[in-house]
Automatic annotation (TrEMBL):
GO molecular function: CP2 mannose-ethanolamine phosphotransferase activity
Membrane topology listed for this record: Multi-pass membrane protein
Domain GPI ethanolamine phosphate transferase 2 C-terminal intervals: 609-734, 997-1061, 1233-1298
Subcellular location(s) of the protein: Endoplasmic reticulum membrane
Keyword DNA damage listed: no
Principal place of residence: endoplasmic reticulum
Matching Gene3D superfamilies: Alkaline Phosphatase, subunit A
GO terms for cellular component: endoplasmic reticulum membrane
Annotated organism of origin: Linnemannia gamsii
Biased composition (Polar residues): 1145-1155
Official protein name in the record: GPI ethanolamine phosphate transferase 2
Segments passing through the bilayer: 520-540, 610-632, 638-655, 667-686, 712-734, 755-779, 799-817, 838-857, 890-907, 914-932, 1034-1059, 1239-1260, 1280-1303
Keywords of the record: Endoplasmic reticulum, Glycoprotein, GPI-anchor biosynthesis, Membrane, Transferase, Transmembrane, Transmembrane helix
Record InterPro entries: Alkaline_phosphatase_core_sf (IPR017850), Phosphodiest/P_Trfase (IPR002591), PIG-G_N (IPR037674), PIGG/GPI7 (IPR039527), PIGG/GPI7_C (IPR045687)
Length: 1305
């Protein structure tokens, strides 16, 4: 199968997979079962009643509002310890807590812990879908608006203002107004709801100053105004500090102090205004809430479900809390948590859910609770209410949550007026009533059905509530008097029942509000299954390289096409017969040995069975781990283990099959094993660089030391990496020189390069070196400016000034390089320098392509060279020359890899830069290992050579039905002698391509985790999303985010091109050598068979010569047939012999005795004279490459049987260019074939992974960790399959970059 056909099959399979992926994603990432209507105060429930007469209560009032205004200060990524911890710099806020003037809570978020879904939870009370994590990155997305979803922002703007200066004309009541300043995500979510607003971009993560200053400047002016009812301030600086340097960054505590100062300013301003103005005193107090949307992990990222990511803060403050009574209540609520011992990590005060803010704030402001809220009110904030008001607040909250349950369960109906079957008259004694309440509670808890349990709790809460109302003095009819103990008992029982119902309902609704489209899930999985089937079919066709090389050369292993008329296996044939069969009856075949026979393996071939078995076991085990949440969270451990195992196996194989003496006197077995074990050592070092996953993410790693204790050493390693990269590029560039058509020491001296071309090459080399130096310098300046605040020593500061000054040299050549003058210093040095880096990399690539084409132009031979044909190199010198010419051979892929390395260093964190140096060392070691495998010597036994033909240094293999031997003779019947076979310089390595693919795949997957990534959304690093761009652009920001997070896999994708180009050189050299030896062997066999003929043109084998040999073959067959017929007639008239002798006689000429050879030779000469008279010379002869096609040639069997069967034409078997006639085209076709094989192997892996993961997601869709573990993994696998494999590897690299490299070779 041609490579382009297989490539087309691969693209079709990927397209089918994409269709299935889209269908699956639409069905898997569910929509929420929400109501699109808005709640109203008119929809409030009636108070519960136990009236026997059936007369229901008519009370539908809401809870009296306690606050008239609200100020919400949201600090992005405000982890709980940032506000409450001992190392926190929120000193002013902590003093308010210590003085009992603020009510603190630990707020728990749910995954995904990114801003957009957290804002939805804080305003609507719902648990957003996981798809919001994707929309959170798309800053221009407008589909996530909450304009049609109930939320407290909309409810606040719909309600009448409670300000004294608000207009209250009949029918024209002034609505409440809300102002917003900060993260522009709010403006997308609530379009048109803010009467004053100013947004800031949330993804320029390197900006930690201006993004907050743009919010702070609005604080005092807005607070001094009296035309607002709500203000929201969203600060992003603390989150950006975490993204850029982590929670232990030197910028973290100053940022905390800054936020503390802002919060204190807001608090003191509110207290001052409400205490100094008479008009303000008459209004309801203002509620000030300081909170966060999520936390952050130890790296500074967020999005996952670890305790550090979900733990944030709620701090409620108000001038109302300044009173003595309020402070006493706060003290009683907070004291139990101040010195708690058994609390969990990041839990400082009582834990509440983020969604609890919605019903709490709605009731405190006198608003209806949004219909879709699943939160429960925070009782501590209602402690000053009366008993009736507090139970009414619980009832309103429970009624709203029951409405959400009714959307899910239409038959979940509970009447407002209820009467428990086991209800006991309120007049019973307290002990009996207590027993009755406990029994009812036990009954509800014993129910197994979630629906029944919730219904029981709700019914019980209403009953207890109604019972309390019957006991309340304001509701008692007649002279019945109840004890306070009885009322307290009923109050506590009602509150407990309400709390149990709200708690269980909230927990259940947080995970049960998802609906899956099973038809889309099933159809999507089927499409992905079809795609995997297509890829597996392509994988079964990946013997393209062997088929391609066989398509234009005679195979060294030939088979006889002779058969007897009786189809019986003959006995041992004569030497004449065997040699004729070997010399002339060969045919091109790619058929494998029959299943019943075992082909004898060449001892020189490496047995990759162990490695292939390990690859299969790894794939199977990995697919199994996709069903386990723990393995998904700790996937990096899986790849680390099997990567180490892979290199251990390759090391054992190298020690077993690489013989000594293959590497210039070295022991190849030791060297090959050493390279593999060296890979293991580097991997062991790198796996300690960045801790990832969930269980051990907080452990100290090398990254921690490089950013703290070893800070100076970290910069030294960064500088050494930059210098090493620049030196490597310079060495590779200046290794380029004019490449003649025949490269060898003699040829180099005979080909002269024109002076203009040499000068132009020197200029290009100098320009590439200059641009490389400038680009690396700009990268260094950008990184140093980025962390300028953390550079504390005077030495580092001086280094920064010097490097910045040097980097300005030549900066004006970059378009737009100086346009930022006069702007902020960081904007100039950061944005402009990064932009200069991009331009420098583009210039390096362009100049590299020009230099490659210029060097590839053929040189003009000198007069002495024109008169001589360059002598062939010996095998050993040719192999050494390939090794010495490595830098020129790999020039283009090396330069591409160097530019990609520059890009990855620019888009990676500073402490990860040196990892790319280790990657380069691993690649170099693997190239050396490949060279050892490719040039191992041929140590096979011996060969048979005639005494008078010392130049015959090859082996003739002949396979008959039951004999496989090498034998030859001539008319004098001289015996053959055995001599050692001349070792080949190059050997093919069957299966080495699959070993390369598996090695690259293991490197690719391991490198993703080595750089600190994981299967958690939290590991997505957006700190480099704006490198070199000033404003949001969905395409550029998306590309930079993907490249920065997949930096390791992308690096190894380009490194694979270097490896494949190097292996292509060895494969081409072997194919060329093997083709030349095969043609020489065929020529020698033919001439040694034709007795009495002389060589007219030694060393050639053209079409005319081959036709003469074929004529001789035909004449020999005719003469043998004639003699055989005579012999058969005589034996038929004589005595009869056994069946074995009869079989030999019927063989005709194939059974002729050697004693008849002289007579047969005379007959052959007669036939040949007759045929030569009729021979018509061919119009033109073929080239020396031996691509000789004899049209109409028939096998000897066909001649015997009257020419009934003809040998297939050689042109029909030819599928590609021949290596000797068209070496360039042959190498290009071979390179494309190798790439297609590699792409098919990797596509099968990613395709099977996606398909099995989709099955796991369907089966585990109701699993506890479906949203925290499996959903992020599904998102990551989508990115792996679509963006990395299909887009980058198959289309960009396989179809684009590799084609350029191959065409330029």
């Amino acid at each position: 199968m041609r490579p382009w056909i297989l490539y087309g099959i691969l693209l079709a399979s990927l397209a089918c997979q994409l269709v299935g992926l889209v269908m699956f994603a639409k069905g898997f990432f569910p929509y929420k079962a929400i109501s699109t209507t808005f709640a109203s105060l008119e929809d409030l429930p009636l108070e519960p009643s136990l009236s026997v007469s059936g007369e229901d209560s008519t009370q539908t009032t809401t809870v009296k509002p306690r606050f008239g205004k609200v100020v919400l200060m949201l600090v992005d990524a405000l982890r709980s310890d940032f506000l409450y911890g001992n190392e926190s710099d929120f000193r002013l806020m902590q003093s308010l807590i210590d003085d009992d003037k603020a009510i603190p809570f630990t707020a728990l978020a749910s995954a995904p812990t990114v801003t957009l879904p957290r804002l939805k939870a804080l305003t609507t009370g719902t648990v957003p879908g996981f798809l919001d994590a994707i929309l959170n990155i798309a800053e221009s997305d407008q589909s996530s608006t909450l304009a049609n979803q109930d939320n407290w922002i909309a409810q606040l703007t719909r309600s009448a203002s409670l300000r004294n200066n608000a207009k209250r004309a009949p029918g024209q009541e002034e609505k409440r107004r809300i102002g917003f300043f900060g993260d522009d995500t709010w403006i997308k979510l609530f379009p048109g709801l803010f009467f004053r607003s100013e947004g800031t971009s949330s993804f320029f993560a390197m900006d930690t100053v201006e993004v907050d200053n743009n919010v702070t400047r609005h604080i005092k002016p807005e607070l001094e105004k009296d035309d607002w009812d709500g203000l929201i301030f969203h600060y992003l600086g603390l989150d950006h500090v975490g993204h850029s340097g982590g929670p232990k960054s030197n910028l973290m505590r100053p940022k905390q102090a800054e936020m503390d100062s802002v919060a204190h300013t807001i608090y003191t301003t509110l207290v001052r205004k409400e205490s100094s103005t008479e008009n303000q005193r008459d209004e309801l107090p203002t509620l000030f809430i300081l909170c966060g949307d999520h936390g952050m992990n130890e790296v500074g990222n967020h999005g996952g479900s670890s305790r550090s990511e979900i733990s944030t803060s709620f701090l409620f403050m108000s001038p109302f809390f300044e009173g003595t009574k309020a402070r006493q209540q706060i003290r009683s609520m907070v004291d139990p948590y101040r010195n708690a011992v058994d609390r969990e990590d990041y839990e400082y005060y009582r834990s509440v859910s983020q969604v609890d803010l919605v019903p709490t704030l709605s009731l405190l402001m006198g608003l209806p609770i949004p219909k879709n809220s699943v939160g429960q009110l925070i009782p501590e904030l209602f402690s000053d209410l009366t008993e009736l008001e507090r139970l009414r607040a619980f009832q309103i909250n429970a009624y709203q949550v029951a409405g959400v349950l009714r959307n899910m369960w239409p038959d979940f109906e509970v009447e407002s007026s209820v009467l428990l079957r086991d209800y006991k008259d309120p007049g019973v004694d307290a002990d009996s009533g207590l027993d009755t309440d406990e029994t009812a509670h036990q009954t509800c808890m014993s129910l197994k059905s979630e629906k029944q349990k919730l219904g029981c709790w709700y019914t019980l809460a209403l009953a207890e509530h109604a019972s309390f109302l019957e006991m309340h003095p304001s509701r008692i009819a007649g002279n019945i008097v109840y004890k306070d103990q009885q009322r307290t008992q009923k109050l506590q029982a009602a509150e407990k029942a309400y709390s149990e119902f709200l708690s269980d309902a909230t927990s259940m609704l947080s995970t049960a509000l998802s609906k899956y489209d099973m038809s889309l899930l099933t159809n999507g999985s089927l499409f992905m299954a079809f795609a995997v089937a297509g890829m597996i079919f392509g994988a079964l066709q990946t013997r393209l390289v062997d088929e391609f090389k066989l398509s234009c050369r005679e195979p060294r292993h030939v088979e006889s096409s002779l058969s007897t008329p009786s189809q019986q296996p003959p006995k041992k044939r004569t030497s004449m017969t065997t040699l004729i069969s070997a010399a002339f009856s060969t045919k091109i075949t790619t058929r494998a040995e029959p299943w019943g026979k075992k082909a004898k393996r060449d001892r020189n071939e490496i047995n990759w069975t162990m490695a292939r078995a390990l690859a299969a076991v790894t794939l199977i085990l990995y697919l199994v781990t996709l069903f386990a949440s723990s393995f998904v969270e700790e996937e990096h451990q899986f790849w680390y283990f099997f990567n180490m195992t892979w290199w251990a196996v390759l090391g054992l194989i190298s020690a077993r099959y690489l013989p000594p003496g293959a590497s210039s006197g070295q022991l190849a077995s030791f060297a090959g094993a050493g390279y593999c074990f060296f890979q293991m050592a580097i991997l062991r070092l790198l796996r300690s660089w960045n801790q990832t996953g969930q269980k051990y993410a907080d452990q100290i790693d090398l990254r921690h030391y490089l950013n703290s204790t070893w800070f100076a050493f970290s910069w030294i390693t960064f500088a050494l990496t930059i210098i090493g990269l620049g030196a490597s590029v310079t060495f590779v560039v200046f290794s380029q020189r004019q490449r003649p058509a025949h490269f060898g020491s003699q040829a180099l001296s005979q080909h002269a390069t024109p002076a203009w071309k040499s000068a132009l090459i020197s200029v290009l080399q100098s320009l590439i070196t200059v641009f490389t130096a400038l680009t690396l310098l700009w990268i260094t300046v950008y990184k140093m400016e980025l962390e300028s605040v953390q550079i504390g020593s005077d030495m580092m500061a001086r280094v920064l000034r010097v490097v910045s000054t040097i980097s300005s040299v030549g900066f004006s050549v970059i378009p737009g390089g100086g346009e930022a003058s006069g702007a902020h210093e960081f904007i100039y040095s950061g944005y402009a320098m990064a932009r200069g880096c991009y331009a420098g990399m583009g210039a390096i690539i362009f100049l590299t392509l020009v230099l490659q084409q210029l060097v590839a132009l053929p040189a003009q031979p000198t007069s002495s060279a024109e008169s001589q044909t360059p002598t062939g190199q010996s095998e050993e010198s040719l192999a050494s020359m390939i090794l010495e010419d490595r830098d020129r051979t790999l020039f283009l892929p090396w330069m591409m890899l160097a530019v990609v390395t520059m890009l990855m260093i620019l888009l990676s964190r500073r402490h990860n830069a040196v990892i790319y140096a280790f990657f380069g060392i691993q690649l170099y070691a693997y190239l050396s290992w490949t060279s050892l495998v490719r040039q191992r010597p041929d140590s096979n036994g011996s060969q048979e050579i005639k005494e008078d033909a010392p130049e015959l240094d090859y082996r003739v293999e002949v396979t008959t039905d039951n004999v496989s031997e090498a034998e030859s003779t001539d008319g004098r019947h001289q015996p053959l002698r055995r001599t050692a076979q001349t070792p080949r310089a190059f050997r093919t390595a069957p299966g080495l391509g699959s070993i390369h693919s598996c090695s690259v795949l293991l490197w690719t997957l391991s490198s993703f985790f080595l750089l600190g990534n994981s299967n958690s959304i939290a590991s997505i690093d957006i700190s480099n999303a704006y490198v070199g761009i000033q404003s949001y652009d969905i395409f550029l920001t998306g590309v930079l985010t993907f490249v920065s997070n997949w930096a390791g896999p992308l690096w190894w994708t380009i490194a694979a091109l270097v490896l494949m180009r190097w292996d292509l050189e060895w494969e081409f050299a072997w194919a060329k050598e093997d083709r030349e030896l095969t043609l020489k062997e065929k020529e020698e066999r033919g001439w040694k068979t034709v007795q009495g003929w002389r060589r007219v043109e030694r060393g050639t084998l053209n079409k005319r010569t081959m036709r003469r040999i074929w004529k001789y073959k035909k004449a020999t067959g005719a003469a043998a047939n004639k003699d055989g017929n005579i012999g058969a007639t005589k034996e038929a008239a004589g005595d009869h012999q056994g069946a074995a002798d009869q079989s030999e006689k019927t063989q005709g000429s194939l059974g002729s005795e050697v004693s008849d050879s002289l007579r047969t030779d005379e007959q052959v000469q007669d036939v040949m004279l007759q045929q030569e008279g009729e021979e018509v010379e061919e119009e033109e002869e073929e080239e020396e490459d031996g691509t000789l096609i004899i049209e109409g040639e028939q096998s000897l069997e066909g001649d015997q049987e009257g020419g009934a069967s003809a040998e297939p034409s050689g042109r029909e078997a030819t599928q590609g260019p021949c290596i000797l006639r068209e070496p360039v085209l042959f190498k290009q076709r071979l390179g494309h074939t190798r790439m297609v094989e590699h792409l098919v192997v990797t596509s099968v892996f990613f395709g099977m992974t996606l398909y099995v993961l989709s099955i796991a997601a369907i089966i585990l869709r109701h699993h506890l960790f479906i949203w925290t573990v499996f959903s992020p993994k599904v998102l990551y696998q989508f990115a792996w399959t679509v963006l990395f494999q299909a887009l980058v590897q198959v289309i960009v690299v396989g179809g684009g970059i590799w084609s350029v490299i191959v065409m330029s070779s």
